[in-house]
Input
Amino acid sequence: MKTECHRSFAERLDSLVDWLYPPRCRACTESIQGRDREYFCSVCWPQIQLVAHPFCTICGRPFPDASGDDHVCGVCLARNPQFARAHSWACYPREEATEHPLRQVIQKFKYGRKVALGKPLGRLMARGCKEFITTCNAETIIPVPLHPKRLRWRGFNQSVLLARQIGRDYNLPLDCFTLFRKIDTPPQTQLPEADRRKNMRGAFALSGETAVKGKRLLLVDDVYTSGATVNECSRVLKQGGAREVFVLTLARAVY
Output
């Protein structure tokens, strides 16, 4: 009876809060009707394509043919990644000319300095990628680091905010200091894929190997595009003695 009364009170309180402060879509800021979708409105939500089977069993890239089975993609066959597996919550078109709500909200988060978006976006990753996270059996979460110069300019590391929420939901420790960025590389956005790999080469290092030696690690970033950044991070972590590295990102940019 107490539980039912408590639930009823909580529901009434939520309704009152929604009436006083109507929830807004994180992408377009339109009001959200009902509580079925917490973070996106009825117009934006259908545009968000969750990563589902079939996808590459290594890098997690979704295949356009929904009738096939999971298998290794041609990119991973040609160049085996340093990480064991990667997965993303959702995907959007790589072409930036295409308007997409998930890209919009990530740009608000990163470049618009909307730090408050870290918690809801981290929750989406934690809930939507439960199967991947639990099967990884990771012991520690490591966010992809920013160079100190870029961190000072932005004021926060978006990967840390996402990783923090996942750590809270799965009771996993967060290590923000062992892996660091020693080279302030140019932004990857406008570079071809081959140049992205060269751009990342030697960009990361470890402050100490004992923190990762023999461990299964969950590497967290906001977007997986070519995979150059997370692959270089994974290479450094593996060289430092990490047993396995798994990659989790909020979004995957696809052709």
Remarks:
- The mean pLDDT is 88.
